[in-house]
User: What shape does this take?
Amino acid sequence: MSSERQEGKDRIIFVTREDHATPSSAELVEEDPDDPYEERGLILPNGEINWNCPCLGGMASGPCGTEFKEAFSCFHYSKEEVKGSECLEQFRSMQECMQRYPELYPQEDEKEPKEQSSETEQTSEDSASAERSGANSTAATEKDSNATQPNTESSVES
Amino acid sequence: MLKCRIAWRKLAPLARASSTVCRQNVRRAGLTHGRLPAQAPVAHMSTGPTGGGRENQLYILLVGAACVGSGVYLYRTLRGDQTRYQERVDEIAARHQKVATEEIAAPTESEPPAVETTEAEVVPETEPQAEPAAEPSPEPIAELSPEEPSAPAPDAEAAAAPSDTTEPSPVAEEPVVQEPVVEAPAVEEPVVEAPVVEEPVVQEPVVGEPVVQEPVVEEPVVEAPVVEEPVVQEPVVEEPVVETPVVEAPVVEAPVVEAPAEEAAEPPAAPAVEEEPSPPSEPSPAELTEPAPAETEPVVESEPQAAAAAATESPAAEPPEPQPEVVAESVAESTPATPKVPSHTPYLLIGGGTASFAAARSIRARDPGAKVLIVTDEPDLPYMRPPLSKELWFSDDPSVTETLRFKQWNGKERSIYFQPASFYISPEELESAENGGVAVLTGKKVVHMDVRGNKVKLDDDTEISYNKCLIATGGVPRNLQVIERAGEEVMKKTTLFRKIEDFKSLDKVSRNIQSITIIGGGFLGSELACALGRKSHESGLEVIQMYPEKGNMGKVLPEYLSNWTTEKVKQEGVKIISEALVKSVNLKDDKLEILLKDGRLVKTDHLVAAVGLEPNVDLAKSAGLEVDSDFGGFRVNAELQARSNIWVAGDAACFYDIRLGRRRVEHHDHAVVSGRLAGENMTGANKPYWHQSMFWSDLGPDVGYEAIGIVDSSLPTVGVFAKATAKDTPKAATEKSGTGIRSESETEDTATSPVASSTPAPAMGAHKDDYGKGVIFYLRDKVVVGIILWNVFNRMPIARKIIKDGEEHADLNEVAKLFNIHED
Assistant: This one.
């Protein structure tokens, strides 16, 4: 059972696993999905891409930012059967740009699952960027799937 | 007047009376028996028979003279003002002309008349000011610009301007090219032969400025005033572009994109722009006399700023002010040898720390092709601070002080620099960069800020004008008065820890001494003590930590937790001296002797003072910004705005938090969040501070916590604890998330399976007061305003939500259930 004691103005409660087994009765305020103040994930409520999403790291702001934005936008709005199939030109120019900055966008081979999980990682901007700039189509696909899971936490320094 | 009249009134009758009496006396003297008749005042009518009267006449004369005199004075003054104003306006117009002509000349492209028409249309829209300015310019130009090659004819100026500008700036980019093209048509339209003539002239100058100058001068003479106006418009736009580091893209881009909109701003810009070509063409001394360049430069300065800020200030008003300042800048600009500092940037970020970098990234993400200039007085590119007191000390790499790379517990390595040098562009390239970029100007300090003129001055007297500015100056470590008073020798053995150089020097020092003392029991002091204590196991270094509180983090953690933490720190090998107030510090036999107020004496080799941060508000005075008296720092609103085009973020910002009230936060994540928010607001978002930032601290591998909101130990707290297992340590948390920067772990997908910690569970024992892991709520008026997650990780979103709601919860144990503290 839980034990409690008071030390001056501070209250201390010790709880066991059983104490916390029952669901909480605390009420939380309902979230407003259109709250303009809230931090947004990768895709904004109006369907546009949030270039300022921490999950993108420095992709949209670096030297190849313009190319990246063009390629990703094209992909995002692509209505083709094979999504992004008409965006090869943009992806190609993006890759060309990234090859000019190997320090920022190292061309590493990453496994798919790792790419997905570390899409939002920024432990080393290198590996993260590398993943993204890797195989264009796979990266695009991953981005898309990640895009559908908007990140709500955004206090990432990258 | 009145006094005169009164005096006259009083004196006149007397005078008359006395004279009359005199006469009477003289006559009567002989007749009477010598008795002077009574001085009966002779009654006089105020007006004589003719209605004038001597009195009145004199009075009228005096009044009249006074009126005439003041009238003459008034007239002369007004006249003088008018002339001066006119001259000023003319001079500005003249400069416009010069720029315009230069622009046109450079590209030598012939635009279809359509372009011209647009120009002409745009031009008329703008202010009529340009016109009158243009017209009189021939005259004023003659007067004012011995310097301006585009002497009498405004056209000449226009032609000259393009040529001038194109010359000095080899980096005349597309914008510039576009501009001249546009200009050319405009100029060509009114005058057919002049542009043609000018152009060839301009072409030449590419080689030598003087050559350009001359032709330009000649050309304009021919042009008609009509041309001037469009030209004026153009130069404004183009100038910025053409100018070497001077007027920035914004001006250029603006005209290209939103010519009509920018019109208003342009004329003011134009004068400035005009100036700029001048400085570059300084070498063409032939025509330019000493004072001339100086004049133009100031104008240039003010102008770009005016343009940049899209200020609607009249050109007349602008130039007079910047004039003295600009001279210095123009000089700087004209020397091609020195690295060119851009004279204008759309986004200026003062300070090169975390907040600044976050803002730069945000601006670049939201404003395509944005040009951002970061000015920092440190020699380093933007870097993150937390590893300086944590991870970097745990590195096995002996060259860590050089590489500044740290290995996180999961093996992944990264540099403390946010981005490698290749991410940034050089300041010289900033203006001409097609897609913009982030440029960092290191080693320069902003010493003065002119908010009205939208520009700043650096410590080397260079001036940079901006459209939007962010102040992210952070702070400087505080020092103890007793140490400062102790003298130079003691100061040499003291480290105020904040920057990379402090880390390097402390690392070096700590290897060569036997004993080190850290004064301060807060985040920095405790982390450094733990880090040094860990190292002391190998080196035998004695690490002492002293502070006035009862336990480590005494101002943050409730007492029971603070005591518990202090025990942990002791286990790291640190000698703790609590409740210690330093009375004096002396140097004796090359050892520091610290005398405490209670009499204890501590002998040590080196001191580290971690007693707080003084926010850097040096610019408040010159910028006219408010400084908060309670928290220190610049006072800003909920959108982090101080004044119209100025935002403040990071440690230096005392902002209004909608939920928690006004405060100033000195944490890494806050710098990121506020920097990003400031960047968003600088690009038009107008969002208030809403996403609550968090902070974290690791005191050794076994004690770590994350916190959010107001975490002040003076508030009542409620702590809900469970027993910790081996998996609940900071080490395990970072291994799971793959990052040592705890704020990042939130946004990561922990797809990789959690790595079970192989270290044995900390010897916590089955002690009842074992605060292994739990949640601590800080309450203010029964509302939760702060939460600490004690050895419980990756639950920050829930904590953030609770604080955001700001609800009164009856039973906090129920709230604690939301955190699932028993699970991983």
